[in-house]
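Sharing a chain and its predicted structure for anyone who wants a worked example. Both blocks are below, sequence first, tokens second.
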Amino acid sequence: MNSPSWIPVGALGAAFQHDNHCLPVVTDLAGRTFTLYFENGWVIRHDFHDHQNLTWDMTAPDGEHLIGHDQYQATRIRDQIYFVDFIKSSERATTVSLVLNLAEQVFVAVQGQLPDQTERLLPIPTRIAEGKALTPVSTTFLRGSIDQPVTADMPLPAVTSDLIGKRIEYRYSPLEVYEHIYLNPMSYTWHCIKGAELGLADTDACYYYRISTDLYLFVWCEKIIPTLGVIMIDLTALKTTGKILGYESSESEALHNFAVGAHARIRSVIDAE
């Protein structure tokens, strides 16, 4: 048997394109405007001009004012709950993913950034010696409310341990199947059962947020091939929606940011205690 090979995210995205289980892109947000009030004091108005173009207009507590124009993609995992994703063109190798819970008027935002070439090539032993995280992918999580300032009684998305102890299979297409084992609040193991990365497995840094009953935001950052994954997992519908971000190739600085969706199957559950 040949040893499995690590592939760039561009090749992974190409493998995931065929007959995939992505949720359909929706146009529900077109023509609508939402003002996001962040816990840190930011206020960012998002104008969704049509099904793919948006303008964001940010005011910070210190008076800083920024405006950006980007292209987005939106999917709806449940009624009134949307996953919105876009590349932030004003910053290097940066994407923003928004989980908008319009039913409860709250949100969580994930800003992810891939490493530059110097950071990307830094060996893991050197990262350890310098006290850095094993992954060079950075993430920032920000929560808040929609169209009204944050108050203490708002049901903001919260860090959760609900997934810990679960082993879940994700079928992204007839050709691409993975399993996740959620180990602890900081780590999970992924394993390719079928597909372009067959036989590959690793344990990487991750984050978990509860959005609603049996609905979660799961984010992971890989270290061998710098990769950011941001997905929503609905354990009632046994379905996911989200994205994977990485570089097109090991030599390229071009981003590859592609949508993913899977049918989920809970294979086992162990006592997290």
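Comments welcome. The two ends are 38 Å apart (CA to CA).
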